[in-house]
Automatic annotation (TrEMBL):
Keywords tagged on the record: Carotenoid biosynthesis, Oxidoreductase
Residue ranges annotated for the Amine oxidase domain, each copy included: 41-532
InterPro entries linked: Amino_oxidase (IPR002937), Carotenoid/retinoid_OxRdtase (IPR014105), FAD/NAD-bd_sf (IPR036188)
UniProt GO MF annotations: oxidoreductase activity
Keyword Coiled coil: no
Identification of the protein by name: Phytoene dehydrogenase
Superkingdom of origin: Bacteria
Pathway recorded for this protein: Carotenoid biosynthesis
Protein family membership: Belongs to the carotenoid/retinoid oxidoreductase family.
Lineage: Bacteria, Bacillati, Actinomycetota, Actinomycetes, Mycobacteriales
UniProt entry tagged with the keyword Oxidoreductase: yes
Residue ranges, annotated region (Disordered): 1-27
Pfam families for this protein: Amino_oxidase
Any single biological process term in GO: carotenoid biosynthetic process
Length: 552
C-alpha cells in the first residue's frame, strides 16, 4: 500500500510554532489584537470574522494540523475521516469565508466549488434489528415513497406532516435562540424572543423529543430515524428537549453534504483563506497560560516561554483545559466549585481497511445506521450515572469511498470507519487501552451478523479511537460530544461564552453556546468574534459600545 499525498494544510502554507532546523519555520507573532487558541472550526470561524473586521489575529494550534474534531488523516498510508462525518448547512462555511475581505477561497472559487461539495443521497441507509431497512432519501417525495413502502401509507403521510413541522421549528428557533449572543434569560424577554417562545409552546416543541415525534410517527422503528440525533446532544430522546428536533431537520430536511478530499477540507479551506488574508496561523504551538492582570487580559504565554501580547483572547478548548489556561484568574477557582457538568456519552471508532471486492456485498451507502432492538435500553446504558457498554449495539458505519473513491480507495483497499457509542469516563472509567482491541472485535462480529459478511475476519484495523483517546486530546470526560444538552445545560443555562470578570477572554466551541456539531461551532466562532468586537471596539479606532462585554 503506497502512501498518498497528505492534502492537509501544513507548514508549507502555515506557520510552524517551533522554528525548523533549516530556518524554514515561522514563529507566532509577538503581538496581536486577538489571540485565538485552537484551530478547530470554532477557532477558524472566530479568526475569520475577526480578520475580516480588521483585527490583527494570531491563531495558535497545538496540533500539527488544523481542524480539531473535523479532520481527515493519513493512517497506514490511507485516508480516514477521524472526526465528524456529517456536514449540514454548508452555507455557514460560506458565511465564514465571506466574513473576510473577499469571501473567496485561494482559487477564487466558493467553498462548494473549490472542494466539489457533493450531496449525499441517501442521507442515511437505516437497517433495523428485524431486518427491515430504508433509505433516507434526500428528496422529500422519494423519502415519503420509501417510508410508505417500508412502514405503510399512514407513516408516509405522517412523514410529510412532520417534515413541515420540523421546517417551521427551524425557522422559529435558529435565528432567535441559536444564532445570537445572550447574557442570560432576561435577554430573551424582547418582543422577538417572546413571540418565538410562544410559538414554540404552541407547537409543543418544549415537550421531550420522543413525545414530540410520537405525535406524528406511530411506528417505533421510524421514530428512531428522527430521534437518534439526540445522541449528539447527549440525552436520551425521552429526556431531550423537543427543540433539538431541529437537528433532524438539518440532516434529513436540509440535507447532508460531503467535500472532496474528506471532511478535513472544510478546515483546510478556511485556514488557507485566512493565511491569504493576513491572519497568522501557527501549528505545533501549545499555549501554557492566559496572561491575566486583574480584570484584563494581556495575551498568552506559549509552552516554550514566548509571549504573544494581545488585548483579547478567544479560547476554544474544553472546560478542563480552559480552566488550566485561566488558572491565574480567581474565577477559575470559583468555576471548579460549580455544580457538576453532565457530559454526553462518548464513542469508540474503529478505522480499518478492507478489500474492495469483499466490500461490494455490503450496503453501498456513505452512512449506514444499524439499530439494535433494545434502543431505549441502549440510551440508559450509555447515558446512565453508572454507564455500561451497549448490550445490544446500535452502530454507525461510514464509507466515504461511496462519495469520494479517489480519496478513500487505494491499491484495492477501501477505508471504513465504525462508530459505537459508549459511556464517557465520568460514568464508566474503563481501562480502554486494554479493552479497546477486544471490544472492536466484538463490534465487528456484530456487524458480520447484521449483513457485513466477512468484516470480522477481513477488516484490517489500523486505529481505534476511544474515550481515553479523546481525553488525552483535552476533551472533557473523554467525549468528543462535550456537555450534554439537557434542559439545565441548554441556551442561557449553558456555559456562557465570556469568562466571568474578564470580558477580554471569550469562549467558543462545543463546550459553550450554542453547542455541539459543525453548524453550532461555526456559529460559536462568529458569536465569539462579536463579543471581542464589543470589548475592543472597531478595529479602526472606535470605542466599545455600552454593552461591551456581556457574559456573567
Amino acid at each position: 500500500m503506497n502512501t498518498p499525498n497528505d492534502s492537509r494544510v501544513g507548514p508549507d502554507t502555515l506557520h510552524d510554532g517551533a522554528p525548523a532546523a533549516d530556518g524554514a519555520g515561522h514563529e507566532a507573532p509577538d503581538t496581536a489584537d486577538v489571540v485565538v487558541v485552537g484551530a478547530g472550526l470554532s477557532g477558524l470561524a472566530a479568526a475569520a470574522h475577526l480578520t475580516g473586521s480588521g483585527y490583527r489575529v494570531a491563531l495558535v494550534e497545538s496540533a500539527p494540523a488544523v481542524g480539531g474534531r473535523v479532520r481527515t488523516e493519513t493512517i497506514a498510508g490511507h485516508r480516514f475521516d477521524t472526526g465528524a462525518t456529517v456536514l449540514t448547512m454548508p452555507e455557514l462555511v460560506e458565511r465564514t469565508l465571506a466574513a473576510t475581505t473577499t469571501g473567496e477561497t485561494t482559487t477564487g472559487a466558493t467553498f462548494a466549488e473549490s472542494v466539489a461539495l457533493t450531496p449525499i443521497d441517501p442521507t442515511y441507509h437505516v437497517r433495523f434489528a428485524d431486518g427491515t431497512d430504508v433509505d433516507i432519501a434526500r428528496d422529500p417525495e422519494s423519502l415519503s415513497a420509501n417510508i410508505t413502502a417500508t412502514f405503510g401509507e399512514r407513516e408516509g403521510q405522517a412523514h410529510k406532516r412532520l417534515r413541515r413541522w420540523l421546517a417551521d421549528l427551524f425557522d422559529v428557533e435558529f435565528d432567535t435562540f441559536v444564532d445570537r449572543n445572550a447574557d442570560g434569560v432576561l435577554d430573551y424577554l424582547d418582543a422577538t424572543s417572546r413571540g418565538a417562545t410562544m410559538r414554540l409552546l404552541s407547537m409543543g416543541a418544549l415537550a421531550p423529543l420522543e413525545m414530540v415525534i410520537r405525535r406524528f410517527i406511530h411506528d417505533e422503528r421510524l421514530r428512531r430515524v428522527f430521534t437518534f440525533q439526540a445522541l449528539y446532544a447527549g440525552v436520551a430522546p425521552s429526556r431531550a428537549p423537543g427543540v433539538y428536533a431541529l437537528i433532524a431537520h438539518m440532516d434529513i430536511g436540509m440535507g447532508v453534504w460531503y467535500p472532496r478530499g474528506g471532511m478535513g477540507a472544510i478546515a483546510d479551506t478556511i485556514a488557507e483563506h485566512l493565511v491569504r488574508e493576513g491572519c497568522s496561523v501557527s501549528l505545533n504551538t501549545p499555549v501554557d497560560r492566559v496572561i491575566v492582570r486583574g480584570d484584563t487580559v494581556g495575551g498568552v504565554e506559549l509552552s516554550d516561554g514566548r509571549v504573544i501580547d494581545a488585548r483579547a483572547v478567544v479560547l476554544t478548548t474544553d472546560t478542563p483545559v480552559t480552566e488550566t489556561l485561566m488558572r491565574e484568574s480567581t474565577a477559575a477557582r470559583r468555576r471548579r466549585r460549580r455544580r457538576r457538568v453532565h457530559h454526553s456519552p462518548s464513542a469508540v471508532v474503529v478505522h480499518g481497511l478492507v478489500r474492495e471486492d469483499l466490500a461490494r456485498s455490503w450496503p453501498a451507502r456513505h452512512h449506514t445506521i444499524l439499530f439494535g432492538d433494545a434502543w431505549a435500553q441502549t440510551f440508559s446504558e450509555i447515558t446512565g450515572r453508572r454507564g455500561t457498554l451497549m448490550s445490544d449495539p446500535s452502530l454507525l458505519i461510514t464509507r466515504p469511498a461511496q462519495s469520494d473513491p479517489a480519496t478513500f480507495v487505494r491499491d484495492g483497499y477501501e477505508s471504513i470507519s465504525v462508530l459505537a457509542p459508549c459511556p464517557n469516563l465520568d460514568s464508566a472509567d474503563l481501562p480502554w487501552d486494554q479493552l479497546a482491541p477486544a471490544y472492536a472485535r466484538e463490534v465487528l462480529a456484530t456487524l458480520a451478523d447484521r449483513g457485513y459478511a466477512g468484516i470480522d475476519e477481513h477488516l484490517e484495523i489500523v486505529r481505534i479511537d476511544h474515550p481515553l483517546t479523546w481525553s488525552r486530546a483535552g476533551m472533557s470526560a473523554g467525549t468528543p460530544f462535550a456537555a450534554a444538552h439537557r434542559y439545565s445545560q441548554t441556551g442561557p443555562f449553558r456555559t456562557p461564552n465570556v469568562w466571568p470578570g474578564i470580558p477580554g477572554v471569550v469562549l467558543a466551541g462545543s463546550s459553550t453556546v450554542p453547542g455541539v456539531g459543525i453548524p453550532p461551532v461555526l456559529v460559536s466562532g462568529r458569536l465569539a468574534s462579536e463579543r471581542v468586537a464589543a470589548v475592543l471596539g472597531s478595529a479602526h479606532g472606535s470605542q466599545p459600545s455600552s454593552s461591551a462585554a456581556g457574559g456573567r
